[in-house]
Please model this.
Amino acid sequence: MASIQLKTEVPGPRSRATLARRASAVPNGLGKATEVVVERAEGALVHDVDGNTFLDFVGGIGALAVGHCPPSVVQAVQAQAASLIHMGSLVGTYESYVRLCELLNEVTPGSFPKKTLLANTGAEAVENAVKAARAYTRRPGVICFEGGYHGRTLLTLSLTSKYSLFKKTMGPFASDIVRLPMPNAYRTPRGTTAEQGLDWGIQQLEYAFTAQVDASEVAAIIIEPVQGEGGFVPVPPRFLRRIRELCDQHGIVMIADEVQCGFARTGKLFALEHYGIAADIIVTAKSLGAGMPISATTGRADIMDATHTGGMGGTYGGNPVTCVAAIAAIEMMRQPEFLARAERIGQMLRETLDGWKARHPIIGDVRGLGAMMLIELVKDRETKEPAPDETLAIIKGAFQKGVIAMRAGLFTNGIRFLPPLTITDDQLCEGLDVIEQALAEVEANAGLSSRLQPA
Model:
């Protein structure tokens, strides 16, 4: 039996009524990828207020590796809410905060002594990482990369790329930030190979210490091992190794932002494990809390201890209800069978999307790592002209057929695949079939289906 069950038009009458209320009550700046109005969800299934059932290929934007409402997390949250909802880690100590920090110190890459600070969002965790790096080095500068996304607070928005969507009219931004090119094997300068583009990226990284900032003024280099909003671009191993070498050479703190790519999404608990590299600080959130608002900054103990007492913290950071959810989620995600399942989903996605590329000229690139995959859509494979309007049409078409999907990429022309890692093979195939149908329809309407060029 199919998982998708559509009983009304989409969105249905009750959904439309709620969407109208949202338009009146909520600022226009809060966008929405689809018009689903959710009543309940479990696993990879989302049920709307009109009785329709959708397959979820967004997973709370990568926050639901363990799926919607996993029983172990639900039970932990319910039990905790009955005994202690809030205390404040600045006020007192409770077992779940300490246990979660111990667990994160244990499972994150790196054999050195570590400490962890808990917060509410990925952006807040990034802010804490930069504060710790600045306190430790007594330097102001931070190097980040084109295509990176690190949050929407003043500092993290300053670090974030993709200006028109996230930053337009929001300035002025924080100072002492240097942004450098990130090698992208698909979008290299015309006439250059991926390897030549990588060489150029490394040269720009090294040159920055002469042209833009002295190494003695740089506190941290922050990078996503797999870019999220930037279009699921895995960092080339040689580039990441060079960052590690330069950090070691100049006493710079290397910060890995694994907010979206962490916690089993790439087939390993952390994306850094694919590279055999440990960052000095690793930032996590999203799937850490199984949907609960919690984030973590985990790093070398000497770096994390560098701030003065009172220099870190917040009212709700490490709330006990979110802590027990995170503990239950980590215990679930760290299991070998869960990681093997994530790897299998990644293989299925890769095989299917590569097959699409062979059939559909609108697909310019298929990329990602593990179960974090994306297709980049273009009007022409030769020019690689982005196709953002067609991408949006595919998202809308898939939603009409029962699949929740979302865009990504610097040009907003990618479709990201972030299904819960509890999705079944049948559900995954069903959802992929729906998206391909929507893609084929949009491709035909745009007159692209007859222009298949060599991949």
